Amino acid sequence: MNGQSRKIDVRVVDGGALYARQPKVYPREIDGRFQRLRIAAVFWLLGMFYAFPWISVGGQQLVLFDLPARRFHVFGLTFWPQDFYLLTLLLIIAALSLFFFTALAGRLWCGYACPQTVWTEVFLWIERRIEGDRNARMRLDKAPWNRNKLARKTAKHVAWVVFALWTGFTFVGFFTPIRVLGAEVLQWRLGGWEAFWVLFYSFATWGNAGMLREQVCKYMCPYARFQSAMFDRDTLVISYDVARGEPRGHRSRAQLRSVDAGVATRTLGDCIDCRACVQVCPTGIDIREGLQIDCIACAACIDACDDVMDKIGLARGLIRYTTENELGGKARRILRPRVFAYAGALCVLVAAFAWGVATRAPLIAEVLHDRNALFRSVGDGAIENSYAVKLANKSDRAVALSLHADTPLPLRTIGSASVSLDPGEVFSLPLTLRAEPGAVRGRNPVTIVVSADDGRELARAKAQFFAPESP
Q1: Residue 224 in contact with residue 218, Cβ under 8 Å?
Q2: Is the distance from CB of 448 to CB of 354 less than 8 angstroms?
Q3: SS3 state of residue 421
Q4: In 3D, which of 36, 158, 93, 134 has the Cα closest to residue 350?
Q5: Residue 115: CB partners within 8 Å, gap ≥ 6?
Q6: Which residue, 332, 316, 270, 322, is CA-closest to 291?
Q7: What residue spans of 328-371 are helical by DSSP H?
Q8: Where are any strands of DSSP class E within 261-339?
Q9: Cβ contact 413:403 at 8 Å
Q10: Distance of CA 341 to the CA centre of its chain
Q11: Mean residue pLDDT across the chain
Q12: Which residues make Cβ contacts (< 8 Å) with residue 133, sequence separation at least 6?
């Protein structure tokens, strides 16, 4: 200032690297009631994924999304593009179910049903069988490369790749009949797109479940970012009881309690700082530091802590499912207005979906008027209109159909107005309606009724009958 400059000393400070390499997590295997429940969920979910394409109902694959034919076959039902409102309703039900279970018990989806969690469990199981337990895997990774390390690492990745390829093949089998797909693979004549998606999904499975693992949950999954909007102080979450566990510390069983003047006084909390809860965590967090975005609610820390408490003779529940209000000394209130609102909405939507499936029309009928001419005069001045009636049999059995016009106009059908359709068949039936000379004038609405051979009305489609305005 005032024409003078002042020298400012500048010192460069090393602020550290912008990116720190993520340390590898070595989750220890643990047994317990929650882990047995998770393993049962893994078997159930993977069983459905790998078995459903191979099950047939009435000669049709149990679950097949036939995109070229624009038909979805699900549990013996066939859904067409006209039924996509049911798919929309199903997606809303899935989203609301996620909100309901999250409000009730936190990240149950992440811990028990998320595909990332399910497939990671399988890849971890393969790794344990080949490389050994947690300590053995850590020693193997730190050891220099030798014949044993190379053999184990190679065997692990070969097993991973085989399982991933099977997964990719099964995934494509939901879109291409899996038996046809299997024959194409065995004969080495797999189509280009099918080969691409098998390899793409296989690579995604190997990369996400084998290599990235917990990093998908911590950095890539959006659910972890917005789940807090569905939490409140009465949501069941996995928490560490600070009041009971602190101060923590290593000690023998005899040191768990000290006696002063004949009165038992706590010198240390129940947590012996064994770090078992950290060792079993698949995302490598310490639950004792509080609820964290990285926690996937797998409850492995609960089983590990309960096991330690059993061994040292203390009560279970140092780490448990609880609520923030309960930890603060208030009453647990799991059933609350938010939960009832979600449950009520779910019941209504599920009932609407079931009603939509049960009452959907078994036949699609669409009437297209002849584009070349609105009408034509024949014979002694009679007027004819030609139509193409597109029929799609949405049911899983053959049906014989007949068509007639439901109208007060004096119209009659020219030619045959009946057809038989096989299950899932789409057919375009030509239809001609004739009006006698002078009987019809101008533009008139007409309804084409499609009936079964037993007289049941299956579908109605609106059309127009055109005639000259004046004689």
Answers
A1: yes
A2: no
A3: strand
A4: 93
A5: none
A6: 322
A7: 337-359
A8: 263-265, 319-322
A9: yes
A10: 23
A11: 88
A12: 28, 29
Residue 360 structure tokens: 């959907």
Which own/partner contact pairs does 163-166 have at CB distance under 8 Å and 24+ positions apart?
A: 163/122, 163/123, 163/126, 163/205, 164/202, 164/203, 164/205, 164/206, 164/209, 164/210, 165/198, 165/202, 166/50
Instruction: Show contacts of 231-235: CB within 8 Å, 24+ apart.
Output: 231/102, 231/103, 231/106, 232/103, 232/338, 233/323, 233/324, 233/325, 234/323, 234/324, 234/325, 234/332, 234/333, 234/334, 234/336, 235/102, 235/103, 235/104, 235/105, 235/106, 235/323, 235/324
Strand 319-322 vs strand 399-406: parallel, antiparallel, or unpaired? unpaired
Query: pLDDT, tens digit, for every residue of 249-287?
Result: 887 656 655 433 333 445 788 999 999 999 999 999 999
Structure tokens at 137: 């895997």
Q: Give the Cβ contact number of residue 147 at 10 Å.
A: 7
Q: Which of 283, 277, 295 is nearest to 124 (CA)?
A: 283
Tokens of 159: 């097993």
Task: Show the 3-state SS of 162-215.
Answer: HHHHHHHHHHHCCCCCHHHHHHHHHCCCCCHHHHHHHHHHHHHHHHHHHHHCHH
What does the block give as tokens for 243?
Answer: 């009041």
Of all residues in the chain, what percent carry a pLDDT higher than 90? Answer: 59
Average pLDDT, stretch 231-242?
90
Which tokens hold the place of 104? 């009730």
Q: Which of 435, 440, 441, 444 is nearest to 462 (CA)?
A: 444
Tokens 């009987």, located at residue: 439
Under a CB-based contact definition with an 8 Å cutoff, are residues 192 and 260 in contact? Answer: no
Distance CA 30, CA 280 (A): 7
Q: What is d(CA 69, CA 177) in angstroms, rounded to the nearest whole number?
A: 12
Q: What six digits make up the tokens of 280? A: 């079993």
160 three-state secondary structure? helix
Angle, vertex CA 267, rays to CA 265 and CA 273, nearest 5 = 140
Angstrom distance (rounded) from CA 30 to CA 36: 10
> How far, CA to CA in Å, does 262 sit from each of 258, 265, 314?
10, 9, 21
Total Cβ atoms within 10 A of residue 27? 22
Tens-digit pLDDT profile for residues 35-71: 999 999 999 999 999 999 999 987 889 999 998 888 8
Question: pLDDT of 178-203, one tens digit each?
Answer: 999 999 999 999 989 999 999 999 99
Output phi, psi for 426, to 5 deg: -115, 130
